TrEMBL record:
The keyword Electron transport applies. Residues 338-424 form the Cysteine-rich domain. GO terms for molecular function: 4 iron, 4 sulfur cluster binding; metal ion binding; oxidoreductase activity. It comes from Maridesulfovibrio salexigens (strain ATCC 14822 / DSM 2638 / NCIMB 8403 / VKM B-1763) (Desulfovibrio salexigens). This is Cysteine-rich domain-containing protein. Pfam families: CCG, Fer4_8. Transmembrane segments: none annotated. Keywords: 4Fe-4S, Electron transport, Iron, Iron-sulfur, Metal-binding, Transport.
Length: 462
């Protein structure tokens, strides 16, 4: 079968096709069609010849097969250290094989590559820190995902997620009207307790433009309200755009590079339109990577930077605390053992390890913060990154992957985990649900609101 009705080489671009694919519960028909999907080997090889840069070619050629990357990979560790989970083996036996065969591979091999690419690597990039040649299998797996997506071999949920971005310009079916109404609703709800609070939409020349994760207006609108409270208390001149507010990129997880470029350009267009002094995004690691770290290159920006300075939410929080715009009531500081999850995407990939610990110094009583081991840029992935959290057919493998983070948390002795990243938050939530180790987890926003020293008259006490 050249291409299926649901599983094919075309991106989802219409609401009709999106709903049709969504109606296929758990992707039953989608995966059945995938088993019959032809590989366009000539197109695959042509894509490789056009897109594979010298860095990737060199990495594939200079790997010494020394195995030093093995212990760097948490998936190797939690899967009984089997050779098939060594990062160099995983990439050489998939992408390396496709290149050696000049794209002449069959359906069964592409389905095998799909499983390896999405269930045996989260693209956390930790392996690149320990390779003596600086080879980064995570970067190469991202490239492999793009090749697989172009041929239709992508998990059902990520085909849908990328389609959501194309149809709704968000990873979920949140329209512009839905988003603006949610902002108005949260402002009305929150103003009762915080008089004068607003969520300004499309305000020109603000000091801060705020972007977020579509899961927030869809499922956690209180997160938007919490951001508004902190901006309000800090006296920030801020705004959200009516369009270009969605910062995430499931298309990055899917390997849909054309859609990645479209996503980030939509955000950048909002920046150009509203002309804020700076932009900050929510507590989400991959969203920051997509819009700030990778995004400028997808958008073809020669300086490698967004249109305006674009900081992660932890950077804004640390600055507000440092400058006294947000003040913590010492009596309300955390006085129990607490640990911190370092997000791969803004700690390992951008170096924001000290910023989060600066925030910890304000909100945790001295002596109660316990580091994970290892930590900072050496920390392990949460176990659900790179799209792993959301792929149903790999849920069993994902649950095994969570064990590394579980062991790290248990070793700290802490019952509270601060996780300033959506994927990490979700993974730790699922970890507790699966293994019942008796922990709690939280973003930074609600913790800080609970311990604010609020200026008199700013808050109505009930």
């Amino acid at each position: 079968m050249p291409q299926g009705k649901l599983c094919n080489r075309q991106p989802i671009k219409t609401d009709e096709q999106l709903k049709l694919t969504l109606a296929d519960k758990s992707g039953k028909q989608y995966y059945a069609e995938m088993e019959q999907l032809d590989v366009d080997t000539n197109a695959l090889w042509a894509t490789i010849q056009k897109t594979m840069k010298s860095r990737t070619k060199t990495w594939l050629e200079i790997c010494a097969h020394c195995g030093l990357c093995a212990d760097s990979c948490f998936l190797y560790q939690v899967n009984d250290c089997v050779p098939e989970q060594v990062p160099s083996y995983k990439i050489q036996s998939t992408l390396g094989h496709i290149v050696k065969k000049k794209g002449q591979v069959d359906n069964a091999f592409m389905r095998h590559c799909m499983e390896v690419a999405w269930s045996q690597c989260t693209c956390c990039n930790r392996c690149g820190m320990y390779c003596p040649h600086g080879i980064d299998m995570g970067v190469m797996f991202s490239y492999l995902r793009g090749l697989l997506y172009s041929q239709g071999f992508v998990p059902w949920e990520l085909k849908i997620g990328s389609g959501m971005h194309r149809v709704y310009r968000a990873q979920m079916d949140v329209t512009t009207e839905d988003w603006v109404e949610t902002c108005e609703w949260m402002a009305e709800e929150t103003e009762e307790e915080w008089p004068g609070l607003t969520i300004p939409v499309d305000k020109q020349d603000a000091d801060i433009m705020y972007t977020c994760n579509a899961r927030e207006p869809k499922h956690y609108p209180e997160d938007l309200a919490e951001a508004a409270i902190l901006f309000h208390v800090a006296g920030t001149n801020w705004t959200v755009p009516s369009e270009g507010w969605e910062q995430t990129s499931l298309s990055m997880f899917a390997g849909d590079w054309e859609c990645c470029k479209d996503n980030v350009n939509h955000v950048y267009d909002a920046i150009e339109r509203l002309n804020p002094a700076r932009v900050t995004g929510t507590e989400c690691g991959h969203a920051h990577r997509a819009t700030v770290i990778e995004g400028p290159y997808w958008a073809g920006r020669e300086d490698g930077l967004p249109p305006k300075p674009y900081i992660h939410y932890v950077e804004w929080l640390a600055e507000a605390l440092r400058e006294g715009k947000l003040k913590i009531d010492p009596a309300k500081r955390i006085k129990e053992p607490v640990t911190l999850q370092d997000s791969c995407n803004y700690v390992r990939n951008q170096g924001l390890k000290d910023v989060t610990r600066e925030i910890i110094s304000y909100i945790v009583e001295p002596g109660y913060f316990v580091e994970m081991a290892p930590n900072k840029e050496h920390n392990y992935c949460c176990g659900g990154g790179g799209g792993f959290n959301g792929i149903g057919m790999y849920r069993e493998q994902r649950n095994v992957a969570l064990r590394k983070k579980m062991d790290q948390i248990l070793d700290t002795g802490c019952k509270l985990v601060i996780a300033p990243c959506h994927n990490c938050w979700d993974a730790i939530r699922d970890l507790e649900e699966e293994y019942e180790i008796g922990i709690r987890w939280s973003f930074l926003k609600p913790l800080i609101i609970g311990m604010l020293d609020v200026p008199e008259g700013m808050r109505v006490e009930w």
